[in-house]
Amino acid sequence: MNDQLSTLSRQWNQSLRTLFERDSDRGSRYVAKGAGLRLDYSKHWVDDAVLEALLRLLDECHFSAQRAKLFSGERINSTENRAVLHAALRAQSTDEYGIDGQSVMAEVFQARGDTYAFAEDIREGRVLGSTGETLTDVVNIGIGGSDLGPLMVSEALKPLIDGPRPHYVSNVDGAHLHDVLASLNPATTLILVASKTFTTQETMHNAMKAKRWITEALGDQAVSHHFAALSTNAEAVAAFGISESRMFGFWDWVGGRYSVWSSIGLSLVIALGPEVFGRFLDGARAMDQHFQKAPAKDNIPVLMALLGIWYRNGFGLETLAVLPYEQRLHRFAAYLQQMEMESNGKRVDREGAPVNYDTCPVIWGEPGTNGQHAFFQLLHQGTLICPADFILTANPTNTDAESHALLNANCLAQAESLAFGKTEDAVYREMIEHGQSESEALRLAPHRTFPGNRPSSLIMMDALTPENLGALIAAYEHKVFTQGVIWNINSYDQWGVELGKAQCNALRPSFDSGDASAFSTSTQETLKWLLSQKP
Ligand code: F6P
To answer: Does residue 144's CB lie within 6 angstroms of at least one atom of ligand 1?
Structure first.
């Protein structure tokens, strides 16, 4: 943050209550719209002066030029020398994306066509299991970006599933694969091994076990009928025993956490059909266009990013709560955790120098109204201030209007209560009116007071359609990009996950030998204890 913003945040002393009292248009002025989404950011600690200063930050960071680099396929992932072109995956024939002057469109359309054709073959019963039975269930084995996106979207769009049922296995904990396979019939199950690298320990371990599950039931020749791979690593896919015709590829310029739009989404294409999946891509494309064309002051991802920077760097707020008032978005916060925290959880800048400011906050959340009965106590009365993104839809999908009105009333009531609270005086008067004694009212009033002034966004859409879901995800993707530009960090590598992986590889043999002398005494003693508990 620049000096002007630091000064503004130090001097900031306006409450949300005052801001609304002073400006009767605040609820309509602090709103941005685009790609089917409406962002109400009126309940934030901003006024016009703050917004102007935040918008100026963009110029200081050469934001427009950086955004142009993203969309023109420059290798902005400098530590891996890769372009970042997931937007190309939702392109239409009139769009153009390329890297080093080479268009990527032909291969994108070819790959999309291949996944659509395969999905249609399964949905129409032209591709069958090894015994000639229809494939009724699809198990996606992947982790991180090769799991969270498809899983989250399959839950969000559940009412539109009209093809084989999708299932997801990610954890190396054998219980996960066991519990999913327990209810499935190998003869009618297709396994998708989803891994960009095709080397991820958990995925390869689970894939090998699934292979045994298939071959033990149906014989070795069944592998070619019951497996497909979603990967960029053709060699490893072949070594696993999956033929080229069953490998659906993508490219190194698609980051794992940005890959739901690629062949990693195959489980969705099979379950929902190409038409619905295409609508999902179209929604994201609409947000790509909004992000590139809308002026910064009306630009949803840019505003979301700037608000995040304001709280993180101006006030040291450490978290962002993501609170969808849509049960079907119950995995959305988990999905965003990877997208935001793996992207912007960085401690050095693009040149490798340690940053002297804070970067990504902790992203967390649960759907409303459940969260209200769990952690909202802290949001309302705790000592931490947690800015929140409330996500809501005007209309329900496959449920009744009465429940939906109640759901949305809860959402607005929470945002309103967080913002405006309830004074000790009002609490006291209310208790007296209800017949409480004065001493009792005085004793309880502090406990029942809501300080308010707790900021939140309302992110809304007409309904949870494939288009709107695509736009919502893309809005967060572009928010992450914008924050990465402002923080001058590389949002597209993830070296921070490597040390733990290497340590695990080094430690695994100790579970057989009992010798963990290369590790700390804590690990040695823990291993000793774990082994002593074996039956
Ligand atoms: O956790 C690290 C990570 O590389 C993520 O970025 C990625 O989404 C996940 O592992 C899975 O990787 P892969 O698709 O290569 O199996």
So the answer is: yes
Distance CA 105, CA 395 (A): 36
What CA–CA distances, in Å, run from 299 to 37, 213, 320, 347?
A: 11, 50, 20, 27
- Segments making up each domain of the chain, as ranges: 502-532
Task: Quote the CA–CA distance of 433 and 447 in Å, as a whole number.
Answer: 18
Helices within 198-327 (DSSP H only) = 201-218, 223-226, 234-240, 266-272, 274-293, 300-309
CA distance readout (Å), 49 to 46, 53, 55, 56: 8, 6, 10, 11
Q: Are 186 and 212 in contact (CB under 8 A)?
A: no
Among 364, 418, 386, smallest CA distance to 311 is for 386
Rounded to whole angstroms, how far apart are CA atoms 482 and 488? 10
Phi, then psi, of 193 in degrees rounded to 5: -95, 110
Taking the chain (535 residues) in runs of 10, the rounded mean pLDDT of each run is 88 97 97 98 97 96 98 98 98 97 97 98 98 98 98 98 98 98 98 97 98 98 97 96 96 98 98 98 98 98 98 97 98 98 98 97 97 98 98 94 97 98 97 97 97 98 98 99 98 96 96 96 97 95
CA–CA separation, 246 vs 238, rounded Å?
A: 10
Quote the tokens at residue 17.
């209550």
Q: How far apart are CA 224 and CA 328, in angstroms?
A: 34
Nearest one of 401, 340, 399, 328 to 368, comparing CA atoms: 328
Q: What distances in angstroms separate CA 158 from CA 83, 164, 407, one per listed residue?
A: 33, 12, 19
DSSP 422: B
342 is annotated as an active-site residue: yes
Query: Count of CB atoms within 10 A of residue 291's CB?
Result: 25
β-pair type (456-461, 37-40): antiparallel
Quote the pTM value: 0.97
Listed in sequence order, the DSSP H helices in 23-74 are 26-29, 48-60, 63-71
Q: How far apart are CA 329 and CA 156, in angstroms?
A: 5
Q: How far is it, in rounded angstroms, from Cα 131 to Cα 139?
A: 18
Cβ pair 134, 128 in contact under 8 A: yes
Determine whether the shortest distance from the Cβ of 497 to ligand 1 is under 6 A. yes
| Best residue for ligand 1 mutational test, from 339, 344, 346, 494 (most atoms within 8 Å of Cβ) | 494
Residue 323: strand, helix, or coil: strand
- For residue 474, the CA-to-ligand 1 centroid distance in Å is 19
Pairing of strands 388-393, 189-194: unpaired
Length of the chain: 535
Structural contact between residues 173 and 121, judged by C-beta atoms closer than 8 angstroms: no
* 402 a catalytic residue: no
Output DSSP code: residue 360: P
